[in-house]
Structure formats: structure tokens, C-alpha cells
């Protein structure tokens, strides 16, 4: 939430003063105009800070639609780097995991990761649980609108979706399995 310099943020009993704040008469106040960030950093009280708009970092949140790039796969899950939250690019890299059981809504036991994603694929996914410094965000593609949106064939051409589970190379006409997203118009950018 935006605040002005000198604006009262909370009592010193509720938070610890962080960057961009100061305490006076039992309250924590903003020392600059910007946005409030509250973080629990292992202490019993959250640290409250104020950062300028350019420093405010957008974070993936539960329920957010994110665009990510597959970095590696194994039989149990795909590892990804989250690149965008909605249409906003992220300054920092966040890691995510799409588990085998979160790839699609039906026939979860028949999902094979290598038939759903390949390293380098660009995927639309939804955040289902938050990560922390040590772990990844858990993501799902178990909706028709979610899944692979951009994939390249072995010939290097951008593949074209031909069904909800296959894409085809326009050069070689080779077909490859993918969990294809049925992209909604609001996610298409010119």
C-alpha cells in the first residue's frame, strides 16, 4: 500500500522498524514516500519497511497466473524459472516446481512429465503454494488455459499446437507430446 513520509504505519509493539522507517512516541513511521513491505524474517515480530516504487518487488502469490520457462525435467516433476506474474516481468528469478500430479486435472496417475514438458518450453501456470529461500513455488497446469504456450522442435522451429496434448513442427511435421495451453485472448500479446 502506498504511504507518505511521516505517515504512521503501526505500533512498535506490532512490528520492528526496517528500511525507510523510524520510530517515535511508540509508533513506527515512514521516512519516505513509497510502498509498505512486511516480512517475517524469523523474528517474533514482522519487519516493516518502506521502499520506493522502483524498488518494490512483485512476488508470485497463491492463485497468480505466472509465465515460466522449463529448466529441467525428471519422472516426478518439472523445474521452472518464473519470468512473469501476469504480464509484469520479474526483476529476480524465482524457482518453481510442477509436480506430476499437478500437470492436469484428470487421469493424474497416467501423466508422464516428458510427454508434458521439455526444457526450454514456455509455460503458463498457476501458483498453488508459496516457496521460501530454500524451496520452490509449487505450480499447477491442471486447467485447460494452463500449460505449454511456446515450444521449439528439435529442428529449432516454433511448434504449432494441434490438440490439447500434441504440438507439431511446421518444418519437419514431426509431432511431440505436450500439455498444451488453450490460451485465452487476454494472455496473448501482440
From TrEMBL:
Matches recorded under Pfam families: ECR1_N, EXOSC1
Top-level taxon of origin: Eukaryota
Compartment(s) of residence: Nucleus, Nucleolus
InterPro entries: Csl4, EXOSC1_C, Exosome_cplx_N_dom, NA-bd_OB-fold, S1_domain
Broad class of where this protein is predominantly found: nucleus
Signal peptide span: none
CDD domains: S1_CSL4 (cd05791)
Domain S1 motif residues, every copy: 61-142
Keywords linked to the UniProt accession: Cytoplasm, Exosome
SMART domains in the cross-refs: S1 (SM00316)
Protein name listed in UniProt: EXOS1 protein
Organism: Polyodon spathula (North American paddlefish)
Chain's gene name: Exosc1
Amino acid at each position: 500500500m502506498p504511504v507518505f513520509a511521516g505517515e504512521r504505519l503501526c505500533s512498535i509493539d506490532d512490528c520492528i522498524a526496517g528500511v525507510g522507517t523510524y520510530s517515535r512516541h511508540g509508533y513506527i513511521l515512514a521516512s519516505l514516500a513509497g510502498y509498505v513491505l512486511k516480512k517475517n524474517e524469523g523474528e517474533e515480530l514482522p519487519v516493516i519497511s518502506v521502499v520506493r516504487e522502483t524498488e518494490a518487488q512483485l512476488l508470485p502469490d497463491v492463485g497468480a497466473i505466472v509465465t515460466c520457462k522449463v529448466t529441467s525435467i525428471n519422472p516426478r516433476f518439472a523445474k521452472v524459472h518464473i519470468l512473469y506474474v501476469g504480464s509484469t516481468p520479474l526483476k529476480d528469478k524465482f524457482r518453481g516446481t510442477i509436480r506430476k500430479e499437478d500437470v492436469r486435472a484428470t487421469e493424474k496417475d497416467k501423466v508422464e512429465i516428458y510427454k508434458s514438458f521439455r526444457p526450454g518450453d514456455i509455460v503458463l501456470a498457476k501458483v498453488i503454494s508459496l516457496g521460501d529461500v530454500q524451496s520452490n513455488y509449487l505450480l499447477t497446469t491442471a486447467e485447460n488455459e494452463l500449460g505449454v504456450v511456446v515450444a521449439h522442435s528439435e529442428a529449432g522451429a516454433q511448434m504449432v499446437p494441434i490438440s490439447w496434448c500434441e504440438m507439431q513442427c511446421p518444418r519437419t511435421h514431426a509431432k511431440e507430446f505436450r500439455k498444451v495451453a488453450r490460451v485465452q485472448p487476454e494472455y496473448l500479446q501482440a
